Amino acid sequence: MDHIKMKQIKDTSVDETFVLESEIRSYKVAMIQMKVVGCKQTNINKAKSLIDDMYHQIGNDESKKPLVIGLPEFFNWIGDMNDKQTAEEDDCKGPTLQMLSGLARQYSVHIVSGSIMERDSTVSPPKYYNTSFIFGPDGRLVDKFRKMYLYDSKLWFQESSYFTAGDRPCIVDLGKGIKIGVGICHDIRHSELSDYYSSNKCSLVLYPICFNSDNVETMLDLLFRSRAFDSYIYTVGVNSARGGLCWNPTYEVGGNSLCCGPAGEIIDRMGTEEGHLITTIDLDKIQYMYDDCPVPLRKKQVKAQPQYSTSSRISIPSSHATVYSA
């Protein structure tokens, strides 16, 4: 259960003042929502086509260009997780990472690779991770984030049967004083990760996700709004479009990629089809929330206290008790 799996994420100390300093007060984030199919090369071509189409529509309007682009979880392939042939390594020689590196350089933009199956051959036998690779505007690999909280569902998919969990957060410096954090899908269930990012003055957590249609209706808004409001941070979830594949043939992916603001409001959302959406991150909204009520700075470690002994408990006279009847 999730409450059993909480990880200790070391935090930096903060005081009661919070100033989000940057050279710019707002920036753009692009969500690329696509159908994922069983052919890796088809998915790679689709992702490139959607990003190329987005920049074709933007043209020379610098005000519309995103500072960072996000793709869905397992955007390049999904199917039988026992098939390790689709995995790539962080040497960036695989076709997926080469394509993303080229696009980042071509458009001078940061790209968060959604996530792909990563093979770590530095150990024997190799380990496999659900990993998001981050490329900078020069096309170089900046960092990578390995999913920390694996999705172990008795109904859909036992992720830990195929992957090893990551053990560290990932903060990406986009330049101009802008920092963002990265999580992957089930990581959104765990507020300690978004708290870590907000305490380190990130303005956004970008989550590549793979939410099915049922979860889109019942959980998507709740989780992304909650994490945004709890941590005073923007949350962006980039989902696959409806009709794409997932691990379980009965698991229908639901689209609806979205951006939520620090007041828990939905800023933007997509429908179920393929395409892109460019949304705006406003740092002044984050600063306003901290100035109004700096709750995230005041979160405390709650430690269990000894229970009161029976003799020390206050008894309530029956005459004062409230009785509820159906």
Short description, anyone?
The protein is α/β, with parallel strands linked by helices and 326 residues long. The protein contains five helices and 13 strands. The protein has a single domain (24-300), classed as Nitrilase/N-carbamoyl-D-aminoacid amidohydrolase, CATH 3.60.110.10.
Structural write-up:
It is a single chain. It is globular and about 50 Å long. By secondary structure, the chain is of the alpha/beta class. The chain has a single domain, classed as Nitrilase/N-carbamoyl-D-aminoacid amidohydrolase (4-Layer Sandwich), CATH 3.60.110. The strands form two sheets. Strands 1, 2, 3, 4, 5, 6 and 13 form a seven-stranded mixed beta sheet that branches. The protein has a six-stranded mixed beta sheet with strand order 7-8-9-10-11-12. The C terminus is likely disordered. It starts with 25 loop residues before the first strand and ends in a 34-residue tail after the last helix. It contains five helices and 13 strands.
Relative helix content: 10-25%
Order of helices and strands: EHEHEEEEEEHEHEEEEH
User: What does the largest sheet look like?
Assistant: 7 strands, mixed
Based on CA inertia axes, which overall geometry fits?
globular
Uncertain stretches? 309-326
Radius of gyration: 21 Å
Helical/strand content category: alpha/beta
DSSP summary: helix tally: 5
Mean pLDDT equals 88
CATH superfamily: Carbon-nitrogen hydrolase
CATH architecture: 4-Layer Sandwich
Number of discrete domains: 1
Give the helices and strands, then pairings.
Blueprint: E1 26-33, H1 40-58, E2 68-70, H2 95-107, E3 110-112, E4 116-120, E5 127-135, E6 141-146, E7 171-175, E8 178-182, H3 191-199, E9 204-208, H4 213-231, E10 234-238, E11 258-260, E12 266-269, E13 275-282, H5 283-292
Parallel strand pairs: 1-2, 2-3, 8-9, 9-10
Antiparallel strand pairs: 1-13, 3-5, 4-5, 5-6, 7-8, 10-11, 11-12
Helix pairs in contact: 1-2, 3-4
